Structure formats: structure tokens, C-alpha cells
Amino acid sequence: MIKTLSHIFLGLSLFVLCFLGRPAIAQAQPDPAQLAKAVQEIEQLDALRSGLADYLKDSPETPTADTMKQVCKPVGMKAMQLSKENGWTVKQIATKYRNPDHKPDTLHAQMAIAKFEQNPDLMGFWEPETLDGQTGTRYYRRINVEASCLACHGAKGDRPEFVQKNYPQDIAYDFKVDDLRGMYAVFIPDVQQSLEEALSE
User: Which of 51, 53, 69, 106 could join 148 via S-S bond, C-beta 3.0 to 4.6 A?
Assistant: First the structure.
């Protein structure tokens, strides 16, 4: 955990130093405090996901739709809350998705997934990105498969009945522990553009 956070904050420090040396560009970037806050919030979100999923690891009961409402829904609701409270766009993205809303939404997102697949030790990174016409910075943070995830994302034929029935287009299966499950993506709009849009209203 300490190693993971060290990698993330090292990346954040390099990002901040880079733009402090380029004030003209830095003016159009998010507040560094926002970047640090995004890292912290996503670590807490992942801890929430992992903690809730841990309930499934040793449970003798087959997961049901109600089980998943208790385990998966709170993570999605927390992501929506973070988006609303901070003016960010927080999503979970995967190439092998169950919910089509989670498929890569930009070419950058596709490339980010590929980058995580090629670098198993890479935990997170930032990239300048334009989303829905707005410039900003997007933070990507990997999600690895844990043993508890296999209750619903293991072998295709072993998926719970409600998954096979309710998600006919599901492609989120056949994972193994430590596989790349997907990533969190946090889009932070540029401060300058946000201010200009607010002043023009």
C-alpha cells in the first residue's frame, strides 16, 4: 500500500514540478490541490470497493442481485457523489465490461487501459485530455482483480444465474486474481476554462 501511494505521489510531484516550470501552461491546468485530492479520493473509493467485495470472498451463499446492490452499487453512487461535489467526472472503465456505460469512452481511455496492461506495476498516471469539448486533466488509476471479484467475474459458466440472465452482453468474466479488471478515470476540467464559462453565464 505504501509503495503504491509512493508511486502515485511521485507521479503527482513530477506533474506539479513540470507545470510550475511553465507558468503560461500552468494557468490552464487544474489546481494541484485538486490533483492531490483526486488521488486521495480514488484511494478511498478503491478501499470502499475492496472492503465491500471482501464480503463475498468467504461467503457460502451464491451472489444475487440484492447482494450486488449491497456490494457494487455503493461504489457507483460514491463515484457520482465525487463528480457532483467536485465538478469532476468520475467513472469506472474496462474493456471487458458488464455495464456498457463502463466501456472506454475516448481513444485516450483505450490507450490508458493498454498502458496498464503492458505495465503491471503501473498504478496510476495523469494525462491532458479533452472530454465532451472541455479541456482538462484525467487521472487514471488501475483496478486489479481480487479473489472476492471471482464470485461474479470468474469462469463464464460459473457466473451467478442473475448475471447470466440480466446481462446477455456481459464480457466481464474469465478473470484471474491480479488480472487488470479496469481503471478509475477522474476528469478534472481546466480552471481557466471553467472560470471563463462561469463568467460568461
Answer: 53
The answer to whether residues 167 and 60 touch, using CB atoms and an 8 Å cutoff, is no
| Type and span of the H or E element at 12 | helix 2-20
pTM (2 d.p.): 0.79
C-alpha cell at 21: 516550470
How would residue 142 be classed by pLDDT, with cut points 50, 70 and 90?
A: very high
First-to-last alpha carbon distance for the chain, in angstroms, is 44
Task: Convert the pLDDT of each residue in 6-56 to its tens digit.
Answer: 555 544 554 444 444 444 334 456 678 889 999 999 999 999 999 988 877
d(CA 76, CA 92): 8
Which residues are 136's β-sheet partners? 129, 189
160: nearest Cα among 66, 51, 54: 66
Distance CA 30, CA 56 (A): 38
